[in-house]
Amino acid sequence: MLFDSHAHVNFEGFADDAAAVLADCQAKDVWLVNVGSQLATSRQAIMLAEHYPHGVYAAVGLHAVHVSDQPEPFRAADYAELIESSSKVVAVGETGVDYYRLPVGKEVQEVGRQREVFIQSLRLARKYDKALIMHTREHPTKPPAAYADLLEILRSEQAAGLPRGVIHCFLGTLEEAQQFIDLGFYVGITGIVTFSKKAERLQAVAKALPLEKILIETDCPYLAPEPHRGKRNIPQYVEFVARKIAQLKSLTFEQVAEQTTASARSLFHV
């Protein structure tokens, strides 16, 4: 059994064959969480999850890159309503901060909006006892530092109690990964870890982290692992992530599959 902790079969990339892809996941014992990025894709994630008694779950949230392009401002009540609508909702997210393409001349306002939506989403996860799926992306040369910002917010909320959660598609340093772990979170590793070029830091992080704190994910339809790089990603390809982590850590594939599945089931309470 494998557990893709972060998928988007609810996205347009699967508009023509979502049912077939999920049926194949069921046949191959690949469990997954479909993650929303705004209201529409959150609703779609729930709709897909409701078709299956187990193995397909939903997360609802507003992605940082969509904070400013919505027709109406973020309302926590809208996402609370989705959480309450289905027992298949296991997480809030993805949510966080993304500073890769901030609007020119409006950087400060955008950072403030993203931070506020993240705080409200974190509190929603805490209120409903759901996992928190966190996203962050830094600009390669310009401040602010997204990982540092996210960690600062988490520490500011720590006294009230942090929800359980995962920092998804982690691309930071080992020190940053350890800070998330110290706060009680898992670290999500995608197919980027399989890349033959420009993945050395992530591979070193994956090798150094305790297996018990790693989740595996595809982020499909994006980030297909080698040998499928450049093609549409699917949840079944989470196998390649597990195999690479096993290689890096000198473990068996079965050990990685078993532990990451157990961790995902613990995080999402399934």
Proportion of helical residues: 40-55%
Task: Report how far the terminal alpha carbons are from each other.
Answer: 14 Å
The number of distinct β-strands equals 8
Mean pLDDT: 97
Q: Approximately what portion of the residues adopt beta-strand conformation? A: 15-25%
Helices and strands: which structural class? alpha/beta
Describe the structure.
The chain has nine helices and eight strands. By secondary structure, it is an alpha/beta fold. Strands 1-2-3-4-5-6-7-8 form an eight-stranded parallel beta sheet, with helices on both faces.
Q: What is the secondary structure topology, with strand pairs?
A:
Blueprint: E1 2-7, H1 18-27, E2 30-35, H2 39-49, E3 56-60, H3 76-85, E4 89-98, H4 107-128, E5 131-137, H5 146-157, E6 165-167, H6 174-182, E7 186-189, H7 200-208, E8 214-216, H8 238-249, H9 253-268
Parallel strand pairs: 1-2, 2-3, 3-4, 4-5, 5-6, 6-7, 7-8
Helix pairs in contact: 3-4, 8-9
Descriptive keywords:
41% helix; alpha/beta; 270 residues; 8-stranded parallel beta sheet; 9 helices; globular; 16% strand
A few lines on this structure:
41% of the residues lie in helices and 16% in strands. With 270 residues, it is of the alpha/beta class.
